[in-house]
Amino acid sequence: MSDLAAPYRRTGALDGACVCGATRIRVDGDYVAAVGICHCRICRVWSGTITGYFVASHDAVTVEGPVKTYASTPFASRAFCEVCGTNLWLRNNGPDDEYEFVPALFRDADTFPVISEIYCDRAPAYGQLKGDHKRATQAEYEAKNLHVEGRAP
Ligand SMILES: [Zn+2]
Ligand SMILES: [Zn+2]
Fold first, then answer.
1. In the CATH scheme, what is the code of domain 23-142?
2. pLDDT tens track for 44-65
3. Full-model pTM
4. How far is the CA of 136 from the centre of ligand 1 (A)?
């Protein structure tokens, strides 16, 4: 993750769960105690509203439960609980790639601030965020990052 995350790097334990409780996630290791919002079409439709993520090192994560994944782009997948449908994480396909977790799964993440917002020019009226965090438009973000929106649902 970018230098933006540097002040928020932590090492420790966080416990998360889906709505039904069948899927439990433990982060025990390195993570970033801050949230990046993404207003891209896939994230918005997937979540049903605006959404964001915090990242955790792949080797810090343990997952138990009936998790399904969906390849939302050629390079990344999204996970959800097969029982209750709670969205869990977004992750690029490399074995060492970090998890980008839906923060609401983890009570301890309630205190994580927003540090970035991408696709900000695509944000819906109901998702306008206040604050002076770093922002990038779709064009600004896609000029520097691998990202394919795919077919707009
Ligand atoms: Zn569940
Ligand atoms: Zn997105």
1. 2.170.150.70
2. 999 999 999 999 999 999 999 9
3. 0.92
4. 33
